[in-house]
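Potassium-transporting ATPase ATP-binding subunit
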Amino acid sequence: MSKREFNLVGQAVKGLAPTQLARNPVMMVVAIGTLVCFVMTPIGFAEGEGGGFALTIALLLLATLLFATGAEALAESRGKAQAGALRQTKSALTARRLSADGQLENVAATELRRGDRVQVEAGELIPADGDIVKGAASINESAVTGESAPVLREAGTDNSGVSAGTKVLSDTLVIEVSANPGESLLDRMIALVEGASRQKTPSELALSVLLAMLTLVFLLVVVTLVPMASFVGVETSTVMLVALLICLIPTTIGGLLPAIGIAGMSRAMRANLVAKSGKAVEIAGSIDTLLLDKTGTITLGDRRATDFAACQRVRFEPLRDVAFLSSLDDPTPEGRSIVTLASAKGVDVQLGEEADGATFIAFSAETRLSGVDLTSGKQLRKGAPNAIAAWVAAQGGVVPGDFDALVARISRDGATPIAVAEGQTLLGVIALSDVIKEGIAEKFLELRALGIKTVMITGDNPITASAIAATAGVDDYIAEATPERKLALIREEQASGRLVAMVGDGTNDAPALAQADLGLAMNSGTQAAREAANMVDLDSDPGKLISAVEIGKQLLVTRGALTTFSLANDVAKYFVILPALFAASVPALGMLDVMNLHSPTSAVLAAVVFNALIIPALIPFALRGVSVKVASATELLRRNLLIYGVGGLLLPFPMIKLFDTLIAPFV
Ligand SMILES: Nc1ncnc2c1ncn2[C@@H]1O[C@H](COP(=O)(O)OP(=O)(O)OP(=O)(O)O)[C@@H](O)[C@H]1O
Ligand SMILES: [K+]
Ligand SMILES: [Mg+2]
């Protein structure tokens, strides 16, 4: 036996502890049945009858228990191996921590606490998960994602998130640590697959209750069988009744249930999806509506100023200069690209001095504008066209007649228009161009095939939104949405009974990510987004939602299929064993005894053997999962009911006949 196999057996035996079994009522009943049979063994030998039978049943039931706990142990060990591979690099990391007075001290990464700031330079490994608070750098994330193409991460943007173990390729960064040791996303994910801290998901709980109730029903069935049997003159032994009970209760699904859940979690991990709960993985399988923001999710998110379009009767230069001045202190990529374009278009660098001592008005998703108030009293603003039009009107100005046409012209190509104003005067519009991600349209097609409606919500104007929506192929879009509007939309969808997924990366996405049933944050996103979400994609690929949906569906369908199979099996066993027990004394029942089994003893033994062996036989299936090709959930359900329901009903007959034939010579 290899060390790993030895550990597995150890884990399986540990699973027999009463505290562990108490989590699983079906297996608890099997354990009690096993004890009863062991107790009956010496009694049987003393009485000279049934001792060997009691011992055989006891051992078979013990095997049943070990197969069930073994399935869970196997799933756990695979999950841990998966998570461990992701976490490996972290242990030996060191860090340079910034103290309050700006000094740097060398510490082990394990000493870092949430809120600590560390400095990392080109060539070094990032010591902890966190958010870049200063600087921008290209980073190699292959330790986490397996993908070695460098990615850009930057303070103050929706791409400020960094992970422990990834390598800084250029520049110097200051990073704020986001988790205490042992509390990182991966640590939490590992805890989720480990027995001690694993919580049942709501639907696992519901299924467990159902299985417990079925167990109770069958207990009553078996107990009432005693007087009925004695009435027709059939002798029932305790061991026989225990064996019958165990065959009837849903041991197969009861034994495989935890393994199915854990396998779902490790499949998510294999896809570089870190779930914060088992529930998140499950919910992903039932999503009805997916909300996505536009910039950075559907588009590459690299919005760059490409054009200044002045209103009639406004010259080009004042538009360029105001755009420049209002963006000098704007740290957003949009703001900086406006400064770059203005410089390329010949802005006088001396002009910057006008902004000395100015008050900067930062962009917010709420106001959708930004700007500066100069010491000269001039107020310069830029922002979403309707926000700027409203601002100009509030200053007592008039919106020029050709403004709307100008905005529409820029928007039709899918560019984002940013209007520019100085006090009462609306000067013109800046075009911010962005590129739709390659292959995103196919992803939306796939989602539609899975029965999921996609809705793009953007802060951008309706024309730009519709242009992008049409090209990307989303089902619906909502433009000029504030964070509140996003939240309200999620609540509306939820109120009408739909399960909503939200993909996002920005701090302004955080409330929506928290409200959604499935909030999928990009690992590159801000800490606020990663914290609010219940799933994080290490690859920072919004299209990953499709994988999440598939993994979730696979989990639900696998569980459904094995439940159907298990219950159908139990029903079949009932019709195999009962006639065998009664056929001799009640000739009318003989007709039902189509199986013509050797003897009641061999019939019950054959059923118990089948009942035990079906668990390991189904372990690979439970761990790998049912394949879910693109199909709606109802379609999948129908197909599975047919295969696993009918299959589950039929299989026990030939198998029990086979075991009966093999056992017959020995009883
Ligand atoms: N730095 C900025 N200064 C002024 N206005 C801006 C700035 N950045 C964006 N805007 C304007 O505010 C609008 C909303 O921007 P925001 O990034 O919040 O959109 P969003 O809701 O995140 O949607 P999406 O990311 O899908 O475009 C933009 O469409 C643009 O008109
Ligand atoms: K059973
Ligand atoms: Mg955004």
